[in-house]
Input
Amino acid sequence: MNDCDNRIQKIYIKGKRFPIEVGMKKVLLTDTVIEGQRIPNGSINIYDTGGVFTDPGYQHDVRKGIPRLREAWHTDDDNVEQLATFTSSYTNRQIQDAELQKIAFPVAYLPKRGKKGHAFTQMALAKQGVITPEMEYIAIRENLGKENPDSYITPEFVRDEVAAGRAVIPCNPNHPEAEPMIIGSKFFVKINTNIGNSALGSSIEEEVEKSVYSARLGGDTLMDLSTGKHIHQTREWIIRNCPVPMGTVPMYQALEKVNGKASELTWEMYRDTLIEQCEQGVDYFTIHAGLLQHLLPAVAKRLTGCVSRGGSIMAKWMKDHNEENFLYTHWDDICDILAAYDVAVSIGDGLRPGSTHDANDEAQLGELKVMGELCQRAWAKNVQVLIEGPGHVPMDKIKENMELQKDWCHGAPFYTLGPLTIDIAPAYDHITSAIGAAMIGWFGTAMLCYVTPKEHLALPNKDDVREGIITYKIAAHAADLAKHHPMAGERDDALSKARFEFRWIDQFNLSLDPEKAKEFYGVDKIKHTPYCTMCGPNFCAMRISREVSSQGKITE
Amino acid sequence: MNDCDNRIQKIYIKGKRFPIEVGMKKVLLTDTVIEGQRIPNGSINIYDTGGVFTDPGYQHDVRKGIPRLREAWHTDDDNVEQLATFTSSYTNRQIQDAELQKIAFPVAYLPKRGKKGHAFTQMALAKQGVITPEMEYIAIRENLGKENPDSYITPEFVRDEVAAGRAVIPCNPNHPEAEPMIIGSKFFVKINTNIGNSALGSSIEEEVEKSVYSARLGGDTLMDLSTGKHIHQTREWIIRNCPVPMGTVPMYQALEKVNGKASELTWEMYRDTLIEQCEQGVDYFTIHAGLLQHLLPAVAKRLTGCVSRGGSIMAKWMKDHNEENFLYTHWDDICDILAAYDVAVSIGDGLRPGSTHDANDEAQLGELKVMGELCQRAWAKNVQVLIEGPGHVPMDKIKENMELQKDWCHGAPFYTLGPLTIDIAPAYDHITSAIGAAMIGWFGTAMLCYVTPKEHLALPNKDDVREGIITYKIAAHAADLAKHHPMAGERDDALSKARFEFRWIDQFNLSLDPEKAKEFYGVDKIKHTPYCTMCGPNFCAMRISREVSSQGKITE
Output
């Protein structure tokens, strides 16, 4: 096993413009040995979301949190000020509660906020022509640290995509632990993982562990969807230990604050929740502002109504109050808050179809149009925007979804849940949805929200999280290959070459889940078997093929 | 659990033209109970590949084999004669070996063969305008036993598709145990599963058990790819207990007969192997007759050469002898044998790409052209034809594959392995390939050869077989929904309605793998929870949605 592990290294590529160091994995390939002659195969760099957790030299202490990477890049940033106290009244009440302090994260950081009149979001700076350290970091990361003259991805290109709203860099200054990454259709397709305790289970420790686990395995962003006790404290622990951008649905916490009674929700309380989370370091918010009163009759016609938690809460509020969605009526206020912390908004699709039957219907498409309007209003305030998408959609209706989204939402990155392509496979919805996710990723979706095997059935455990993440890495990578990301194919070709030459160690090290591949193959056999376990020596097509093509016999 | 099981019944729908009974599953749905009022939901029929094994009244004795269903339909068939002895010299040697008789199947059936000058294959009869019992059986089966005036699938339609070569009914009269099914793009997408011992493991009992398991779970056909000892006897046991059509690659056994030495293969010995297997009841053969000498230079240019076992064997034979592929030069002889037993041919793609790098290359496409020629020659002799396809293909190259196959192979059904859309996920290749399989199924592929999680790594165990089958049922169903098979959506809608009404028992019974879904949900909670385990009661979108749309509260 060590033979495998010693060949995966963590490397850091230095920036040219800024004092940044971009971490990634480097796989040192073994030699091809033909008839006793050694031919080196070099190395392959791999995009790494694990941050310090994949650096073998790093000692983690969950009570201290991980290094605050981006803090050093902005020490003399004139746009941002450090506040003397928290702005949210809820936060202040939590701090003053001695009982809650026992479970609070041990280190307190005061919040940062953009100065009044200083437009400092990545989008605002991009529009001004500024290249930020984050943009250079991303260009290096997306090129896997290679000087690739054929790659269109340069810091300037990153800037231009962000300026146009076609890409989002979620990077709240209050979460400097997060490594910069980008969500946009011209870049690697990203995957989001969800964690979160509910009223029915799981603890703070478990959630932190799951979040670290998710980042190590390849989750590009993480949404904390907790709805149970101590949401504030759980989130703080996670953020301080989280190397990837983090998202939330602030409505979940708001509802907890009114004991689950949707009709008691108010704008003031929601506003305070937004600020509370902005100052903790949440990088993007899902906000269901597109579900309006005029769309509710279309929901009643559906087979499966409204299956979005945030959406159904707002629908109930609108019905109880007979008023328009307050997230919509306060949209400008929301955007002002988000712009002050460079928190991106992910406009939630409260009316995503919950069954293939309801796909692309009047309710879903009606909401999508509203989302397009909200997008432009957010951009006017330099708030970065993602658009959330379905849901359950049969394969033949996926492309239409993507095309309408591009058209109506002006090129803002699409962020979809799956979509699930059939409804009849509970316990396998990671697969029913990976099919749709791969396709919509190819068509242009920028980020895929993962689905685990427990979808529709139960909360995922660690095994489910692993299964969900790897399945979505597969979907994202399939999309990257199909859309010709300049760096996508190198790793496949290296693994295929290793396969044809029976270099098992390299096959494992280059794979998305080396541990499981090794386990299936049988660790004891890893070395030097010049045929596969499936067919045995006489039926090894690759062995025979080498012979037929006079490619020489693999001798080691 | 009994609550679930008693609601899945086995039913038999009688034919109108012929004395046939088409078996399928019927799920009796529970009532919707709104505010105490019961509203019945009827039932849903489900396509069932399990034959007698899913009939609770059937007692299986592996030593007797399963009922010979189709024998009674053809008692006065003037086209077919019962032979007095076996034609294959190899078979006769096996029968005369006392030692081998100890492991032989206990009941011996003499072979049937088409009479000289009588064209009796399903294709021959279809061309003559005849509707066979098999065709009516298939029409009933594809309509799920429903009288559906909107469905284009009638016995006449089945006949016309078979006559045109666009669909195949694999039904060797020597395998009357198999229930008729059809492979064609206008019908349900089918899945094939592979079993087979190799030099490295597994026994006859295990293989029979796996074949039964495969049919029960949803495998539409079964390929026995055994390459180890006692291939002849293993196959006999499997066929006599197999309710689905069975395929083989006769070359594998031929190679065993010459102790793995490809250069010693001869046409005479291969011919005897074909006849041996025709008379045992194999329903279709994979024959790698399209890999010709002029294509070998293109193979040497590839990243992963030739990865087909049958293909590499023939490539080696051609190189050793410096002669053209004898399967090609003897194609007419092969077709004459196949026509005499109505065994379909599945023209093997010896040059399927073994990596995304090699997809749609000169070697692959060159072979596809030859396959088109072979197809027409087989049709001229009334042999039913499938065309095998890749392999590893990135998503953006899948459609081209399908379109070229349709064009060059004149509409013959396409039968593909995956395709795998990326190369970097060993241990998850059921998923990398399900993405490609779903897409190519939608584009028109008629049958998908399953891939298990152990692909590239090891032989699959029972769990892997289950995972592979369910994954491929998902891909096939996603394709059926997308291509609008007239009966595809009913089950999804029924499950979605059940989901929206918290009818858990129905959700499980309608799902592709009820056992796993129940296991994940937690069996103890099956009854009457009006919200899901994931979100808890306050955050149940579906509960709130019902309320908002005034759909009444689910009370049971």
Remarks:
- Chain B has a mean pLDDT of 94.
- The first helix of chain B runs from residue 2 to 5.
